[in-house]
Amino acid sequence: MSVTPHNISQFSVDTLVERWSTARSRTFLAKHSGRQLDPRELFAELAYGVRIAQEVTAGRWCVVADLLRCGAVDSWSQVADAMGMAETEARDGFHAWITAQLDLRRRTGTIGITDAEAAELQVLSEAVTW
């Protein structure tokens, strides 16, 4: 079985980074010592890197919500700069996250945010300047 981001989802971030680093080291050493690159190592490096990126970015909107709740956001530009994206992308992404969290709550009954939390976050996000 090949390594894909989907079949390595059960690993902790520490394990993902360790396995990515190991695969990266092997491909780096092979490349710089004139040995043939192993496609399995390259695919493993790629898959672990993608899975790490997914894990790292999964909670970013929760952090934005926490920043809004504690009154730390002065502008969407500030959020966008911290996330390395455009202001509209940050604002629209956050609003899409709220919608997805509401949908998740309606489907599961427990996971996601409540209608009251969504309303609070909408008010807080709209109070932030561009």
Key phrases:
single chain, 130 residues, mainly alpha, 6 helices, 72% helix, 0% strand
Task: Give a verbal description of the structure.
This protein has 130 residues and is mainly α. Helices cover 72% and strands 0% of the residues. It has 6 helices and no strands. The protein has helices spanning 13-32, 39-58, 60-69, 76-83, 87-108, 115-127. α1 (13-32) runs antiparallel to α2, α4 (76-83) packs across α5 and α5 (87-108) runs antiparallel to α6 (115-127). The longest helix is centred in the C-terminal third of the chain and has 22 residues, at 87-108.
Topology:
Blueprint: H1 13-32, H2 39-58, H3 60-69, H4 76-83, H5 87-108, H6 115-127
Helix pairs in contact: 1-2, 4-5, 5-6
Unreliable residue runs:
none
Shape: elongated
Mean pLDDT: 92
Q: What oligomeric state is this?
A: single chain
Number of strands: 0
Order of helices and strands: HHHHHH
Round the Cα radius of gyration to an integer and report it: 20 Å
| Structural class by SSE content | mainly alpha
**Overall helicity:** over 70%
Main sheet characteristics? none
Instruction: Report how far the terminal alpha carbons are from each other.
Output: 48 Å
How much β-strand is present in the residues? under 5%
DSSP helix count? 6
Compact description:
The protein is mainly α and 130 residues long.
